[in-house]
Write a structure and sequence with these properties.
Layout: H1 3-19, H2 24-33, H3 39-42, H4 45-48, H5 60-87, H6 93-112, H7 115-118, H8 123-129, H9 142-151, H10 172-177, H11 180-184, H12 195-214, H13 220-225, H14 229-232, H15 235-264, E1 265-266, E2 269-270, H16 279-282, H17 285-288, H18 299-303, H19 307-314
Antiparallel strand pairs: 1-2
Bound molecules: protoporphyrin IX containing FE.
Length: 319
């Protein structure tokens, strides 16, 4: 080993530790005594593999748990990129495109792997072990809601039937109270919220409101709108953002809905979901019409949001 090189490294280390009032020699002792790092410690593998804990003895329940966990990790990757767009001050279009493309590649993994759920479990087992997880539901995925909050201002997440009555002039709290998923989990006749929703609100409302306030003028949609005109016109960026919108609000929801159709319909009748929504009316993207970046579409595209895809899967004769 080149001694000069090591001497220079040591003087740099001395500088580093002196600057923070620390003693290099003590740190070198630490280096001497430290164990070598292993793969399993570095990625906390034992912890990761210890958290698939079924509540019944049906073997397929483990697939169900694990695939939810895998999806949550991808949601975390998506949020990781979204936060970097939100925090960006440079307005560099290439940076924006790169982050949006990464998000899209995560969605593509989730969309193409959803067959693990749709085809990969025995229906008979599912029908039984699902009873052991009531009233839990993927509906309670806080990261799914955070992805929406980072993507677009709250007024775009208000339930479609009353979205036209709201704008950025409404308070965060008011908009949040009318968000589409709260309505979906409220009994239309009695006005009573499902237990699934009540528990979710109790656990996550403060955190979601904090995020909504934090990104009040800096969601991904704002970041796009604040770009100089020539950057806003960038075709690659527009395509990447549209793909993100359609992945998040049409393609993933459709794959997911495919699993609800596979497991929760019998003789054309709807079986109650664990989260208690009227899911056939709640889940379809053309009913929810959640659009993160509405300015990027024509009126007609917005009117048909998610429709042709839904027809493609469920009413092929109409396409
Ligand atoms: C057999 C597999 C699955 C079935 C049958 C299913 C069914 C449902 C149903 C019926 C709902 C509506 C809420 C309710 O009433 O419970 C729902 C919501 C939801 N599920 Fe699943 N789900 C499955 C797998 C997954 C997976 C793997 C994830 C990944 C995290 C997930 C995430 C979600 C999310 C985020 C929502 C809320 C969607 C929205 O508000 O638009 N689900 N699910």
């Amino acid at each position: 080993m080149n001694k000069e090189h090591i001497d220079s490294q040591i003087s740099k280390l001395e500088e580093k530790y002196k600057d923070s009032g620390q003693d290099l020699s003590s740190y070198l002792d630490g280096l001497l005594y430290q164990r070598y790092l292993t793969y399993w410690d570095y990625i906390h593998l034992d912890t990761l593999l210890s958290i698939q804990v079924p509540r019944t003895h049906f073997p397929d329940e483990e697939i169900f748990i694990m695939y939810h966990q895998i999806t949550e990790l991808y949601f975390k990757l998506i949020l990781h990129e979204q936060k970097q767009i939100v925090d960006d001050k440079t307005q560099d279009v290439d940076f924006f495109i790169e982050k949006a493309n990464r998000i899209n590649s995560y969605y593509q993994v989730l969309i193409s792997s959803f067959s693990v759920m749709i085809k990969g479990m025995q229906r008979e087992q599912f029908m039984q072990y699902r009873m052991a997880l009531l009233p839990a539901s993927g509906f309670q995925s806080a990261q799914y809601r955070m992805i929406e909050l980072y993507a677009t201002p709250l007024e775009n997440l208000v339930h479609f039937s009353e979205r036209h009555n709201f704008s950025s002039a409404n308070s965060i709290e008011d908009l949040y109270e009318h968000i589409y998923w709260k309505k979906g989990a409220t009994d239309v006749v009695t006005g009573e919220k499902t237990l699934t929703l009540k528990q979710f609100e109790y656990r996550y409302t403060p955190r979601l409101i904090r995020i909504a306030n934090q990104v009040k003028n800096s969601t991904i949609y704002h970041k796009y709108q604040q770009l100089p005109q020539n950057s806003k016109d960038n075709k690659t960026l527009i395509e990447a953002l549209k793909a993100l919108d359609i992945n998040a609000n049409v393609n993933w929801p459709l794959m997911h809905m495919g699993s609800a159709y596979r497991y929760l319909t019998k003789d054309n009748a709807q079986i109650d979901a664990t989260g208690g929504t009227n899911w056939k009316e709640y889940l379809p993207p053309n009913f929810q019409k959640v659009v993160f970046f509405p300015e990027l579409y024509t009126k007609q595209e917005l009117n048909n949001w998610g429709k042709q895809w839904v027809d493609h899967i469920f009413n092929p004769e109409k396409v």
